[in-house]
Structure formats: C-alpha cells, structure tokens
Amino acid sequence: MELRTDPLDDHFHDACGVFGVYNHPEAANLVYLGLYALQHRGQESAGIVSAHERILHINRGRGLVADVFKQQDMERLCGTQAIGHVRYSTAGGSANQRNLQPLVVDTAVGGMAIAHNGNLVNALTMRRRLEERGSIFQSTMDTEVIVHLTALSRRTSFSERLIDALEQVKGAYSLVAMNEGCIIGVRDPNGFRPLALGRLRDQGYVISSETCAMDLIDAEFVRDIEPGEMIVIDGDGLHSSFPFGRENRHLCIFEFIYFARPDSSIDGVNVYEARKRIGARLAQEQPVKAEVVIPVPDSGVPAALGFAYASDICFELGIIRNHYVGRTFIEPQQSIRNFGVKIKLNSTPEVIAGKRVVLIDDSVVRGTTSRKIVKMVRDAGAREVHVRIASPPTCYPCYYGIDTPTRRELLAANHSVDEMRAYIGADSLAFISIKGLYQAVNGLGGYCDACFSGRYPVPLSVGEDASGCVTLLKEG
To answer: Are residues 290 and 229 in the same domain?
Structure first.
C-alpha cells in the first residue's frame, strides 16, 4: 500500500489565515472557532497564542484545527487576548516544525507573537543582513525577518518597534501581533491580503482574515482594515494610524475567484455575489450552445450559477464531491483506473449522458486536474464538453503569499488556448477577460492581477532570487 498526496490538488493556495481576539474571558476558544472558519485558507498546521498574567502561552501543531487542539490544550491557553494562525505551505515546508505559526519570542522588552499572511519580496536580502549582524534564524519563514527586526528596534513601545520593522520590508503582509498587553493588526500599503475588524458584544475586538469567521462567534463586522493601516487595541481602547503611507490598492483578485469563502465580504464586496457575476460575464464573453451547465465543485458552483442564468441553460450538479477526503489517502495495491479522481469526485451519468455540457471551473493551473475531469464527464456519456474558466489564463507565478508553480509548470504560460484545449481534451476552452473580471467584481479595479498579466505591483528587490522566493519564502 502506498501513501499518496491528493492528485486533484491543482489549485493555487493561499498561504494562511490569521485571527485575533482582545478583551474576552474565552479569547483562545474564540480564536479556535475563528481558525475553524478560516480552515480553507490553510490545512497543514494551526497555532494559538494567548496572554495571561504577562505570560504568553502557545500551542501549535501540524494538521487541521480540530486535530491540533484538544480540550486540555485549550484549558492551558488562558487569558483575555489571543491570536491564531492556519497555514498552507509549499512542498516540503510542512515537515519543518519550526515553521509553525504564530511565532513567539522573548525580547529585551518582553514577549511577542506574530502571525502573518503574505510574502515579503525582500526577505532574503533582509535575512542575509540580519545574519551578518549576528541574528540566528530558527525557521525558513519570511515572518521571522519581521520578528528579528522588531526585536532589534531601538524604539520604545511594541507598536513603534513593529512599525520600525515593517518600514524595512517590502511585499505582502496582513498580520496580527501581540504582547502581554495589546494586539495589533496591520495590512501592507498595497492591501494584497484581506484583513477585517470586528467587535464582540462585551466590548471585545476581533481581527480576522475574513468576515465569515466573525459570523461564527457572533462578532459584529465593523469595517475592513485599510491598506497601510495599523490597528492597536489595548487597555486604552482602539487606535488607528497609517504609518506606512498609502499606495495604490492591489488586493489579490484571486480572493474573489477561489481563496475566500463565499460567505465572506472583502473590501465591501460579497464574494458569493461577485462569483455569480463573474460567471454571468463569462457567459456574455464566451457563449456556447449547450443543454446543461455543470460546475467543478465546490469552487466552480457560484460562477456556474451565474453562467447558467445569463445563458438560460439548465444548471445541474453533474459532478458530486466527496467532502470527507483528506489531503492524503491509501491507494490499493491493485490499481483502480482513475482512482485519484474517483475518490474525490464522481459524475452523475443521468445528468450528463447524451448532452452538450458546459463545464465551469475557477482556474487552470497545470491542467492535470482539468484533463481528468473532462475525461470523467466524457466517460459519463457527454456528447460535447465545453470548458469555461472563471479567471483569465494563469501565466505567471505569485510572490505575495500564494503557493504557485514555476512559470514553466503553468499550462497557459507555455501553450496557446487551443493547445490547452487539446491537452485537456475539451471541445472548446475559453476564459474570462481581465477587463470582464474587474467589471464583474466591482467595476473599479484596484486589484493585483500579476498571475494573469505579469504586472507585479511590488517587484523583487535587487539581488533577490526569484526561485528562492518561491522555494524559501512561501511559508508565511
């Protein structure tokens, strides 16, 4: 018997989610629930840090939130403030226990903890400088660069030290940090990754990667934390400042395509409604004559609903997903044809047979998954299979906090659309345009679309190795 990784895991992955609670007697329990709601942002590890009587308590581990934290663990995480982190890493990264977050250290001015979503594009350069000054790193995460810079700062308060550190780094960071007396939320000047502020009924506060996590704990959504904004919450209340200035807004457009949960709202835009509009716009730009629209579950469902409505074509769940499959499984010694597909997805021939099918998915990365799914639909008796993708062709890797393959592995970077169509075995293949995507989301723009266009809002620093960023830094 052989242990295999999930062969259908051919999507981009957001590196992590962060959550923080201030001024609640069960702060760690609320963070646990918040991380549970953010589990889609990272499934390889989870961690919580709480503060009680000027001591930071920590529990971290590999696996899902429900596997990492047991009742006895939560009882030790006492105090009225806590922060947490769920993480997805690149291949090989999950085996390093030192890469688990939040990071916790003792400094000359007390303990501190940081949980970070995003990637720093100058982290290798800063790490080398710090090592030359005598810093000793315990992990391969770019987050640890922020920790060292904060600890080395000569400024007095924790928030000022953190500002000093973040002024020296470039790239994407939505983070929560804490010491024994406060929690801090910061979003980088471009606003690459989402971060929101909420309020608890008993005067406590919440900071979260997504609003859906606030719903679970009955927290009231207050507002999105603005790009370049720092929120400090302590015994004197909530304090907002913009110490890093304001850049042009560049929220990752993939939040609306795939990453965020559909029941979240980001920067005032509901994700579910945005995905339906993307599907409707895709139908306008790339129409097709067919009898049935079928989503690739689960991420393709809202776009497929929009496509079906705009096309006046019947929507059906022609592919059913098994939601109880983990990231690994045991394959029988005697090979079963297409075992990897069947364990996670199964077709419904009664819906598909003899029909012209429109298959809706969120993206094409390497194309391996699309190829298997198209074959599954054909095997179920489809007369034609027309694939429509709710994002533009993905041609470039990301350096801002998303786990992406190298450019040579991206199907769209090396092949024409017709070559891609032939590879996945579809009768036709088409993508939404970048302009259409923007108009479907909010009609305004202000997003990072580097994975489609190659236009990087924050370029790699001089001397920074791009492949190093991909292999070393996608741990935060």
So the answer is: no
